[in-house]
Amino acid sequence: MSEIEQSLADQSAAGAFHLKKTIVMVGMMGAGKTAVGRGLAQLLDVEFLDSDAEIELAANMTVPEIFARDGEPFFRARETEVITRLLQGKPCVLSTGGGAFLSAANQARISQHGVAIWLDADIDLLWSRVKHRDTRPLLRTPDPRATLEKLCAERVPEYSKADLRVPCAPPVSIEAMAARVARALLARPDVLERTDD
């Protein structure tokens, strides 16, 4: 752990942060939104929520099951409902699905009530993380790598509209990425501030 990461961790242990707005993790599948989001929530001592998990809980079905039974448009409508509800709660760290930030309505709600953090990972890193998983309905194609590349090319222009961009470059631990995001957020006193100054 670097000196900066240790300092952030020490401050977190002392309850040294005040989160004013919900931090919304956006980016491609495999970028680490859930893992880094959990690490960031722990570092800041706030609640972690995952929009996909909340949708699954409400529907009593998995995301792939919802896609298979009701289709992507139905899923996206539920996703917007859930994100809207979660943004109205106490400030937390919220991980979203890879397609959530593509919606102009979701972007507007996130901008109004929170801050979007784009975890920007290159295609090789993304592929290394998703290629052995069958939980990605959009990658259930004859050539999933090509599908991932196409999705990435289509989505990056939307992700680039996020409030902050944090690059992901391996090898970086979850803790190091969480600290990297926290450092970026400290430049936004309307979102996160130290309480020990």
How would you describe the overall organization of this protein?
This protein has 197 residues and is α/β, with parallel strands linked by helices. Helices cover 52% and strands 15% of the residues. The chain is built from nine helices and seven strands. It has helices at residues 3-13, 33-44, 51-59, 63-70, 72-87, 104-113, 123-130, 144-159, 174-185, and strands at 17-19, 22-26, 48-50, 93-95, 114-121, 164-168, 192-194. The strands form two sheets. A five-stranded parallel sheet has the order 3-4-2-5-6, with helices on both faces. Helix 4 (63-70) packs across helix 5. The longest helix has 16 residues, at 72-87. The protein is globular, with a radius of gyration of 17 Å. It starts with a helix and ends with a strand.
